[in-house]
């Protein structure tokens, strides 16, 4: 059986879908029995979701700024 340390080490690969079927099953088994690791994995998911949303918002903001600057320079 995997230890909590193993889960922490494999968390990114698990969330990225990079583990073998057997290792993924072992991680799921551990998560089903360990509330601490389940909470940790949920925190990882939340962090990834927030970082992705922030990156998309930043890209969108950069595009808006570029549009505004372009419009400003065009009107000169």
Question: Can you tell me about this structure?
Answer:
The protein is mostly helical and 76 residues long. The chain has one domain (4-75). Helices cover 87% and strands 0% of the residues. The protein has helices at 4-15, 21-33, 35-75. Helix 1 (4-15) packs parallel to helix 3 (35-75).
Low-confidence stretches: none
In angstroms, what is the radius of gyration?
Answer: 20 Å
Helix share bin: over 70%
Name the overall outline: rod-shaped
How far apart are the termini? 69 Å
What are the main properties of this structure?
about 80 residues, mainly alpha, 3 helices, rod-shaped
Compile the SSE list and pairings.
Layout: H1 4-15, H2 21-33, H3 35-75
Helix pairs in contact: 1-2, 1-3, 2-3
Short description:
The chain has helices at 4-15, 21-33, 35-75. The protein has 76 residues and is mainly α. The protein has one domain (4-75).
């Amino acid at each position: 059986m995997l230890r909590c340390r193993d889960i922490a080490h494999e968390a990114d690969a698990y969330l990225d879908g990079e583990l073998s079927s057997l290792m993924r099953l072992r991680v799921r088994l551990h998560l089903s029995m360990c509330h601490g690791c389940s909470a940790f994995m949920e925190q990882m998911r939340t962090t990834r979701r927030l970082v992705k949303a922030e990156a998309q918002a930043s890209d969108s903001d950069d595009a808006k700024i570029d549009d505004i600057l372009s419009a400003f320079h065009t009107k000169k």
